[in-house]
Amino acid sequence: MKALxxxxxxxxxxxxxxxxxxxxxxxxxxxxxxxxxxxxxxAYLGHDPRRVPPLILGHEAAGRVVEGGGELAxxxxxxxxxxxxxxxxxxxxxRQNLCAxxxxxxxxxxxxxxxxxxxxxxxxxxxxxxxxxxxxxxxEPGATALHAIRLAEQSLARPVSEARALVIGGGxxxxxxxxxLLDKGAGEVHLGETNQLRRDTAARALxxxxxxxxxxxxxxxxxxxxxxxxxxxxxxxxxxxxxxxxGNTHTRESAIECARSGGVIVHIGLQDAAGxxxxxxxxxxxxxxxGCYTYTPSDLRATLSKLHAxxxxxxxxxxxxxxxxxxxxxxxxxxxxxxxxxxxxTV
Length: 347
Hints:
Layout: E1 2-8, E2 11-16, E3 26-35, H1 38-44, E4 55-56, E5 60-67, E6 76-79, E7 82-83, H2 89-92, E8 103-104, E9 116-120, E10 124-126, H3 133-136, H4 139-155, E11 164-168, H5 172-183, E12 188-192, H6 196-210, H7 214-219, E13 224-227, E14 239-244, H8 249-258, E15 259-267, H9 279-284, E16 288-291, H10 297-309, E17 318-322, H11 326-335, E18 342-346
Parallel strand pairs: 11-12, 11-14, 12-13, 14-15, 15-16, 17-18
Antiparallel strand pairs: 1-2, 1-4, 3-5, 3-9, 3-18, 5-6, 6-10, 7-8
Helix pairs in contact: 4-5, 4-10, 5-6
């Protein structure tokens, strides 16, 4: 089969690879669409010691079952790429994302930037009739965003619909987080993004979902704003909830600066691990800081339904490129030359 293989730092090679073999309880899925995640970019840059080349990356995907699968045989499916034991306390308590024995395809096990992938049947979700594969590939980042909002809801002093929210980062997780906040009735959602191309994309997407004029969102109306956090920071200590969908020293500093006393910060991004956390400030202002890792199966199912129902807008902000041109897509993303919040590779 053809696959896009991470072969060395900043090197991806489109080449022939052995086709996977399905183990008992697994199915083979012919991949149709697979999104490029920020974690794939970290691996490509050599920043993730868990991902050792040569390795097929990719975990945000949808396709069709071509071997095995039982009642899912021949069905179009979205992938739950997080493989868990199903037996530990966390799995039994519905917190499968915390399973100590979890695996993620595209980390050690071969991923979805390939013509075919094998994974447990329990990790396959049938698509609603007529759902497009490229939209289904957004299920994984969307579920991450939904999981973050659910964690925030457990700690917020007021409902999300009454909260003033800030999302840092205009990639797919950040943008989907903003769209889901609007879907939940949040009256005020702001999104900060340093890349001008992505800011423009986010402004159009949020306006479409919220029924606003895109020009008003871009200019920064009272209720919704997409802005450059380096040039126009929001008012300090004014947000009930802040979602950091980037996760570096500077964004953590900004999140703490922008959260109001008694507010909540949800840390989603994993760009780096050093600095940016002023524990004294968080203590004196009683700020709740929550780490957020991936999603649960129920988050994935709920997100798939939202995407199909159109609750998150028209999804016109994704860009499709052929898998064979995946190396170029990574290079464009690294250079900041891509306006799309999500690039989906098609097989």
